[in-house]
Amino acid sequence: NGAAAGFPEPFRLFVRESVESTNDEVRELARMGAPDGVVVLAERQTAGRGRRGAAWFSPPGESLAFSILVKPPEPKALWPRLALAAGLAVAEALESSGLTAGIKWPNDVWLGGKKAAGILVEAGADFAVVGIGLNVNSTEFPEGVRGIATSMRIEAEREFERGEVLAEIIRRFAIRRAQIDRDFEELIAAVRVRCVLTGKQVALLTAGGPKTGIVEGIAPGGELLLRTTDGLERLMQADEVRVLGD
Ligand code: BTN
Predict the structure, then answer these.
(1) Which among 13, 16, 23 is the best mutation to test ligand 1's pocket, defined by most ligand atoms within 8 Å of the CB?
(2) Signal peptide location in the record (predicted)?
(3) Burial profile 184-210: b = 16 or more Cβ within 10 angstroms, e = fewer
């Protein structure tokens, strides 16, 4: 359970051997009335998924794949900010392991210019599921992401204890998510200093099609500040950003 795992209140850990997706497991538990803070970790996901319908591959025993149930007090409108809080928590946990982490807004976590973790937040009627996939000791990646994916082990040239990394992420997440409605400015400041997109030419994949421009930073509300080719500075929300070249 949570205390044994070194988790702060109210987080409680449930470990499953094999599931399709931990996000679905947590969604199901939420529907059955599970409380805020339930964490489901799976040793194996048979249908792990990423944003925009992509598959998420997490080799059993080498990576972390887990989902956190979050129930209000955070008002629903603030739920996109959960993704920022989660990405930051992962980045900080990696740093406490001695690595230098970057955040690719909104919520990918980078090590050495490659992706080490991804986050998929899905909202229900009165809850949100924060799914986190982190490459801990993985050394092999599927063909499609080879060259753009990395792991803690590859970057640090040593292995890590997955339980310790998990507990550190949960501890950091407990602190950062409390800042969503109380001290968002501090949360954003911590994201900003880790943002790997600032100054880069990017394409944002939005519902209305791609929008290209130069990233000027992150706005106080957590949106990306994009200077578009027409010279206007826009506040953007998106779940996917493509870096177009340095
Ligand atoms: C992304 O980068 O596109 C997000 C990846 C999210 C993967 C995690 S692994 C645990 C949880 N369960 C899922 O099916 N997906 C998330």
Answers:
(1) 23
(2) none
(3) beebbebbeebbbbeebbbbbeeeeee
pLDDT digits (tens, 9 = 90+) for 66-86: 999 999 777 777 888 999 999
170: three-class secondary structure by DSSP: helix
| Residues 37, 34: Cα–Cα separation, whole Å | 9
What's the CATH number of domain 201-245, 2.30.30.100, 3.40.50.1820, 3.40.50.1220, 3.40.50.2300?
2.30.30.100
ipTM: 0.99
The three-state secondary structure class of 142 is: coil
Amino acid at 122: E
Predicted confidence (pLDDT) per residue in 110-139, tens digit: 999 999 999 999 988 889 999 999 999 999
Residues of the chain with pLDDT > 90: what percent? 78
Q: Please tell me the residue having the least CA distance from ligand 1 atom 14.
A: 48
Percentage with pLDDT > 70 across the chain: 98
CA distance 63 to 167: 14
